[in-house]
Amino acid sequence: MLRIKGVATRNKKADRKASEGILAVQVSADGRASTLLELNCETDFVAKNENFGFLDQAYHADKSRKVNDFLNDQVLKIGENLKVSRVLKFEATGVGRVSAYVHTGAKIAVLLELGLKTQAAAANPEVAELARQLAMQVVANNARFVRRDEVSADVVAKEREIAAEFTKSEADKAIDEAKRIVEDYKGQLVEQKAANDAEAIAELEKRIAVGEKQIVAAEGRKKGQLANMEKIISGRVDKFFAESCLLEQAYFRDPDQKIQDLIAAAKTKVGEEVSIVRFTRFQVGETAAE
Fold first, then answer.
1. Coil/strand/helix, residue 1
2. Domain boundaries, the chain
3. What is the pLDDT of residue 57?
4. How far is CA 115 from CA 98, 131, 138, 201, in A?
5. Is 62 a residue whose pLDDT tops 70?
6. Which of 60, 114, 157, 211 has the highest local Cβ count within 10 Å?
């Protein structure tokens, strides 16, 4: 009877938006598999509740019941819509090491896989720590790709378009701002001429002359930028790669070091190839509108 009541209660609340919640991970003892799960509720108050933090584990106590049965019980207890919105499992492809990191507050989490040549290297504690640090890096700097050759042509084309529009827009803004200042001075000049204030008139005429030179200079800079547009766009796209590709990012613990430098150092320590195979970053609520 209680189970039926739980199902009925959950059905009533099913249409209520559940975009708060937590992320939970489980990594296998051998470091070859990891699962990431997002459990959602309606309010952050419930998400921060200590009991809610263990909902993704407690159902294991009774093997005869499904996760859905457990959620129905919790909806009845908590009084909010609860749902598992997504689950992802990483299993090492070939010889490798899978790591997971859940950031403080359980709102952001990452799964990451390292590729190696031998099982001994995969079991190396330094490799395990490297994988953990890299997962933390993805949380901190929100990488989207491992390396630039993973970025699709469509994404690159879009970034080039954004870079071109931004460059033109910034140039036009500088010209418009210089013109606005000159027009403002000219308005003040009319007022001062009406007041017959010779000193103010002289000062404003000087400012207008300087402002008009600044307009010419801004227009000249725009022409120069347009003439070098390809170089400017390439620079901005390279910046996009440096921010979006994990291997090209600056290490969050040491900005003078790139992630690719970290990988190179790991190869030397382990004595074999170490590579980042893949990663996934989840943030609570990012799929709520889907």
1. coil
2. 2-146+256-283, 153-242
3. 52
4. 9, 10, 17, 73
5. no
6. 114
